[in-house]
Structures are given as C-alpha cells and as structure tokens.
Design brief:
Blueprint (H helix, E strand, L loop, with lengths): L9 H7 L6 E4 L3 E5 L7 E7 L6 H7 L1 H17 L7 E4 L15 E5 L9
Antiparallel strand pairs: 1-2, 2-3, 3-5, 4-5
The structure holds adenosine monophosphate (AMP) and zinc ion (ZN).
Length: about 120
C-alpha cells in the first residue's frame, strides 16, 4: 500500500528506531535528525514517517504531510537560530540531482554563506 514502510529503506528504519539517528524534533507525521555527513553547521533532514520515494510524490499523495515537512523545516531553522541569517530547504529529486536515499526528505542547511545558484 502507498506510504507503507519499506524493508530495504534506511529512513524507514530511522522512523522505526531500527537505525539510530540524532533526532532533534518529532511530530505525529515527521522526524527531523542531523545529517550524518553535514554540509553546513546546521544540516538537518526532515522526513515523513510514511514512505514515498521523493518529495513531489509525497505531495501528490499526502499534501498535508508535505506541508508538515515544510513547517517542521522552519521550526528546525528557528531551533537552530539560523532563521534570522537565512537557510535553505533542499529536496534533491532523482539521481542526477544527487538523491541517494529514496525516501522523501528535506535538507535544512544554514549557519554559513549559501551561494546561489547551488551546484
Ligand atoms: P540525498 O543525497 O539528497 O538523498 O540525501 C541523503 C542524505 O542522507 C545525505 O546527505 C546523507 O549524508 C544522509 N544520510 C545517509 N545515511 C544517514 C544516516 N544513517 N543518518 C543520517 N543521515 C544520513
Ligand atoms: Zn522509507
């Protein structure tokens, strides 16, 4: 069934607690945890508890949960005190864009200068 946990999915295992993570926020529909290979002083991933392969697919199926991801990304930025200086929410989508984990996730990046356009 759409959205069900996938046995071979790393982020489903973080949701279930089978793989440890440094969780900074959790709601009924989302988990936010520190990226294991941070690219900025603040680098937190916000994921839905439901499994969809990317953010657009999540938004098409469960738009309320996609909105929850954005709200939580803002809350992470406020918690990390990068909301004043600016932060970036990134959804890499597809291998050509650098997506390596096919469970929807937002990167929240901040705490350093963020060039535009990104690479
Ligand atoms: P992406 O390349 O956009 O799919 O992002 C996947 C992100 O997950 C990368 O930034 C990885 O560093 C991060 N990552 C992979 N494994 C873990 C893990 N066990 N805990 C936290 N972050 C992870
Ligand atoms: Zn998953």
């Amino acid at each position: 069934m759409a959205g069900e946990p996938q046995a071979d999915c790393l982020f489903c295992k973080i949701v279930s607690g089978d793989v440890p993570a440094t969780v900074v926020r959790e709601t009924g529909t989302t988990v936010a945890f520190r990226d294991i290979n941070p690219q900025a002083p603040t680098h937190v991933l916000v994921i839905p508890k439901v499994h969809y392969p990317d953010a657009a697919t999540l938004a098409a199926a469960q738009p309320g949960v996609a909105a929850d991801i954005l709200r939580e990304a803002g809350a992470v930025a406020a918690d990390e005190k990068v909301d004043g200086t600016g932060f970036r929410i990134v959804f890499n989508t597809g291998t050509g864009a650098g997506q390596t984990v096919f469970h929807a996730h937002a990167h929240v990046l901040g705490g350093r200068g963020l060039e535009w356009p990104p690479g």
